[in-house]
Amino acid sequence: xxxxxxxxxxxxxxxxxxxxxxxxxxxxxxxxNPKKDAIIDEIQEITNLGIDGEISFTESLERRxxxxxxxxxxxxxLIARLRLQLSSSIESNKEFFEKFSEAIYVVSCGFKEFIDxxxxxxxxxxxxxxxxxxxxxxxxxxxxxxxxNVLSQHNGKIQCLRNMDLNGEIQxxxxxxxxxxxxxxxxxxxxxxxxxxxxxxxxxxNADHITPNLDEFLFVNKxxxxxxxxxxxxxxxxxxxxxxxxxxxxxxxxxxVEILSHSLSEEDLIEKVKDIHVxxxxxxxxxxxxxxxxxxxxxxxxxxxxxxxxxxxETCKEHGIVVFNAPYSNTRSVxxxxxxxxxxxxxxxxxRSTELHNGQWxxxxxxxxxVRGKNLGIVGYGNIGKxxxxxxxxxxxxxxxHDIEDRLALGNAQKCRSLEELLAISDVVSLxxxxxxxxxxxxxxxxxxxxxxxxxxxxxxxxxxxxxDALKEALESKKIAGAAVDVYPxxxxxxxxxxxxxxxxxxxxxxxxxxxxxxxAQRDIADFVPNKIMAYVNSGNTVDAVNFPNIRLPRQTNxxxxxxIHKNVPGVMAKVNEVLAxxxxxxxxxxxxxxSKVGYVIVDVDKEYNKKVTSALKNITHTIKFRVLY
Length: 630
Hints:
By secondary structure, the chain is an alpha/beta fold.
């Protein structure tokens, strides 16, 4: 079968470079002009009018050059700046330009004086660059352009391509009007709207294919590229009003990201997750076996919170889906709320505030106590419990703790041998246990009976940990003097109506699961979790995964990386190595980590190899997932 010759026609401004060159030239020539900003705004407006076809390109060019007041000596600085402002996906795919130089042309309404030196670095000679040329006066100032050049005229690219008379298929890659009209005029076979730097509505609407980066263009054309799979094809769904910084971090890395402010029901999530590669949630979205079964493309889940009880971790593992959470990012926020609530409950702040709101002045010291010298009992001495211990001690509280694990005390905190011992001596009990299902109704009538009379309870842990009816009874009977509750056995998926048996009780602080919901904590989580997701998707790292063998991989250099997830049964690694040997691959690195259910092996190999090896690895019995990264 005869292969059709393909010709690749690249625009220059906002395609090969991330900027419009004449705008950059304006920044240089108008640096000391007091009206610089206004003139540059006018130049950019004229540029956009010409690119969108609202005015003729000839008019656009004439008006901009007149405003520039540029000199030949400014061009060296312009070229230096443009070299630093190449489109990132162009820079990362330099190998494509070197290997396919004979099929690559630059057709631009810009100027050869600055285009030629830039594209020369990418193995594109001057005779493959079609662009305008400046006209200079005797003193070297730019006064105009060669008006006989077809590219200085309206729809000049159409005539230029006709004059080039290329054989084979012609593909145009650009961002503007002058690019897409070439296809409409029949001189180009396909138009790719390049949107890495700017997405112009007319170009996008008239494109055969939208290419957010060069990787996408190369992928579609099955050409050699820097990335094995274009990141824009990796779809990420963020639910539950996750901080916008997470969206920005993931989108800036090239992924296609959708963000929703609410959680989804199981039925809606099953439908939505079918084409999703990464799912980001907080505490309300339930990732059930049915959801996981529908998520055929899912690689990873990011829990933008501490808890992962809402995710079926074992089923995720069995499907090769890696789960990350944020175990530390909101620790300080939770601790600060606990400290604040301890003080407010001790001082009966809420009853006094309610009285004033109701028009009653009740100045009294009754029921108002200092926290200094009081005993704080911390149940669960993990990250949050330990930090609460330090801050409470700094305020003069005596700290006691109980944990089923052997935990080293910080400061002067004292370990209690049993929960009963802790409850009997604590003026305040603060719960910080994990989301283990065994902790359901962990704290009930029996535990309230063991507390000191008039003690206080803080629950910022899990809603199902405390028996709400037992808590209500303890409050109403005055067994305990107050409580602060931030989590509930059942919480709504979205903001709106909510009811609890604790509503209206005296000296009870109720908050809607906001312990970790500070701007600082959400920003930290929006940094931590996306970093873990990107490290896994981009390189295979599983450090800090909660359901998967943890492995820290070295930086990938000049190699292809095979990621093979399989059931941990005897003989799989032998099969993997047998396949590698059969296809005579040069292995530059191999890494393995396993747990009782899955094995995760990563193999780095030289870039040149028989591509049939990937199918052979995928087809090994007990393979769960297989990916190639480069």
